[in-house]
């Protein structure tokens, strides 16, 4: 039994390819309905988002068969997307899913959305009883993803301008709710940042724009107050956060103006974000007081870059978690793979021992109870000692696909005709599914 | 036994200092740092308890004893404060300072011995406890001041590194710092008052104008001045943070400078 993944993502395929081969939820459902018709398919889960489409499959199904299935589902010739595909088997496939679930394979490193998408994909497959032997793989991958977010800072720290504004404000003020924010300019950037501020609980937002109508429009959207541009200086005095994003060619907030506006409050904490190019705020404004912070577009980019490095550092910790969880999964998988061989070998040895011991004891009717016990112990010890090394070796083969042939050899050598490993796994997976 | 306890305290606090500073870079070290703190704290607790039993009083009768006691109070406070997760990093600043204080107290041991207090009694005990508590709030306020200026510097320079990611928001640190002083000033006022009362019963005079007494009064005035500047002149943020840091330097001078320059009554 082999676990493999075939798919493409934002790193390997351009958007137009990704959107053509991605599966709608209906198409995924259709795929699961066909699951029972393919005997080589022991289990399947399909992860399809705007950044990736991936088939996780278990069983003896070949790559060609998976691609043929994919072609059929989306109605596109494989020639159109085969160049963008990756295909991993065994350990590489597990590792890939663990990385995906933890957000390490995402366009925005460490984003949390993908974890929910993987979980949804798993649940949908489970609803159609199509997950099969993939249950444990997804269980551990989702657990690694959860741990990554709770135990590391992989999903902390803003990676976009809008988020960076909010993050910086929080680093200075903590709780944003009691603050007053002033938005100067109601263009695209101003609107975006305004939405971020609202989403993060800033209760009082004031919008100022040269064209009053535009200010009113944005104010309505943000449930904010609009003021005339002439009121700028007075409004600045009330504001804790000032965001400027106008298309003016000359500074809108000059040093002289800020000096008047902030008179007597230079120690009060105040954050100015100048998102305009050319700049809206004269850089000297930052020197007006120890409580004044002024960041322009480049400064924000610097923060985003520092955050990216921070996340990359955290990614190392996430890799560690992935290694831990993957090791547990592989050990479990290995035990399941070789479990039946070990069981049948031990059963066979025990059967032979009992039969031969019975015969021998029949021929020695005069033995005392103690002597019979000694003989019985001797036979048990012989069998155990003989099999012990073999058991240890066989257990170690469980995780190694290359050693699968050894397991087959053991079966041949001892004529073991017990249940197949696949059927054992299926029942194990079934038990697991009821757990949750 | 005492040597063993001191060794455990030394190792515990030293290890914790290193680990706590390291925790700024790698959060997982913080847990081991806390084990170090707990080990040192436990050893110190036993030491102080023994001391208290043998001397039948507060283990703070000499400067050496008092500093050790002060360190113990600070570490106890830290263990309580750290229950709140966002304040974990106070340890990174406080533990090294406190470790140094403890180390200095060990060197003081010899020449301060013998300044034992003839005055016993509940009033003196209360005076010591309250004064200790007020100095604890002042040290914590100074630590918040250090944290504030460090984080502020990163934000001003726009080169965010450690403190940007690890420390609480500026405004919060500013507020906590001021609340601590607000707590410390009345505590010290009461402590000085009671000290005067206790002194009356010993020397018959409540205020003897020793350097120590004058200096304590100066410290109280400095911190009261901080509150006044905050309320009246609107001092906030950077200036307030620098103020509490400098003010605590005065407290330290009070202990080493005055006690070694002007030995005599008034102890510490």
Describe it.
Chain A is an alpha/beta fold and 436 residues long. Chain A folds into 3 domains: 2-155 and 310-328, Glutamyl-tRNA reductase, N-terminal domain (Beta Polymerase, domain 2), CATH 3.30.460.30; 161-290, 3-Layer(aba) Sandwich (Rossmann fold); 338-419, no CATH class. Chain A has helices at residues 15-21, 25-33, 63-74, 90-102, 113-127, 135-151, 161-173, 188-199, 212-222, 232-238, 255-261, 297-363, 369-397, 404-414, 421-435, and strands at residues 2-9, 41-48, 52-59, 86-89, 180-184, 204-208, 225-227, 241-244, 270-274, 292-296. Chain A is elongated. The longest helix of chain B is centred in the middle third of the chain and has 36 residues, at 122-157. Classes of the chains: A alpha/beta (436), B mainly alpha (268). The interface between A and B is medium-sized, with 22 and 21 residues.
Whole-number radius of gyration of chain B? Answer: 19 Å
3D shape of chain A: elongated
**Arithmetic mean pLDDT of chain B:** 82
Counting DSSP H or I runs of 4 or more residues, the number of helices of chain B is: 9
Mean of pLDDT of chain A: 90
Low-pLDDT parts of chain B are 110-119
* Amino-to-carboxy terminus distance of chain A: 24 Å
Low-pLDDT regions of chain A:
420-436
> How many distinct beta strands of chain A?
10
User: What is the CATH architecture term of the largest domain in chain A?
Assistant: 2-Layer Sandwich
Tell me the fraction of residues in β-strands of chain B, as a range: under 5%
At the first level of CATH, the class of the largest domain in chain A is Alpha Beta
The neighbouring-strand order within the major sheet of chain A is: 7-6-5-8-9-10
State the major sheet of chain A: 6 strands, parallel
Share of residues in strands of chain A: 5-15%
CATH superfamily membership of the largest domain in chain A, which one? Answer: Glutamyl-tRNA reductase, N-terminal domain
